[in-house]
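re: ur question from earlier - yeah i can do the single chain one, its not a big deal. heres the input i used so u can compare w yours
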Amino acid sequence: MATITSYRDLDVWNRSMELVVACYRLTEAFPSREQFGLTSQVRRAAASVPSNIAEGHGRASTGDYLRHLSIAHGSLMELETQLEIARRLGYLPDETWLQASAQARDVGRMLHGLIRRLKDSRAHA
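and the output i got, formated as tokens:
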């Protein structure tokens, strides 16, 4: 296993950054009337995921790190909900929604794994 010296070394951070880029691109097709509505919400929630992973990694304690990972997970759930809203409103074709949802689920699984490992290491410390 590679040594983690920076949040940039975390696969979950890198995958969540890919999700941000995908969300920015898919919201370009949203109606212009959604610029300050759903478009902004999707982008903000997506960006919150890697931002909180990075911020948590930079914190001094495991507890702080876990809190930020929890916030990242909450933002991911918010993003999944917003993507579903966009799909139901007809702003996202099913194929695009399926791809973005799959990316979000992958990031969610990775976040759960990181949280579990941190909790286990804290319990055994």
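Helices lie at 11-27, 38-57, 62-88, 94-123. not sure if urs matches, ping me
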